[in-house]
Amino acid sequence: MSTSIDFAALRFRYEQLANGPRAELRRVRSPEGLASIPGFYRLLPGQRASEKWLRVAFCLPWLKHAHEALPLGAQLAKHRIHEQRLFQVIRSTSPNDLLQLRRLLQQVEPTVNWQRFGWQLYFWRPEDKRRLLEEFYLVHSGESAA
Description:
Protein name: CRISPR-associated protein, Cse2 family
Number of strands: 2
InterPro entries: CRISPR-assoc_prot_Cse2, Cse2_sf
Distance between the termini: 36 Å
Oligomer: single chain
Number of domains: 1
CATH topology: Peroxidase, domain 1
CATH class: Mainly Alpha
Strand order of the largest sheet: 1-2
Radius of gyration: 15 Å
Order of helices and strands: HHHHEHHHEHH
Largest sheet: 2 strands, parallel
Number of helices: 9
Shape: globular
Structural class: mainly alpha
Strand content: under 5%
């Protein structure tokens, strides 16, 4: 995996955008909708609207950054998100999986390590979804063992 993408810097760039472009990114209804708004191109100058970048930009407004943040799955468990809602994300296909994920992000308002989670969103393969589920259940198994 290349380390040339700095997802934490991308989050910082989002925070530096004017209110209008940030609002455009928050209001968009689907990842594909980002390709037709100026805010996306201001956030990612010189990038084409590939599926990878659309996924990242679609979730970006709802995730803050901290280097020491817990994995997202663990945060969902700590906020007592019902496992069925997480399974909706895992079992759905694009774009419904991202729509379900964004709803969870809007509810929980998590802080993630963008450098780690950015790659997960960028690729968003079945194993990336499974990692989210594993993080969720590892927290639950740790609580029941205590």
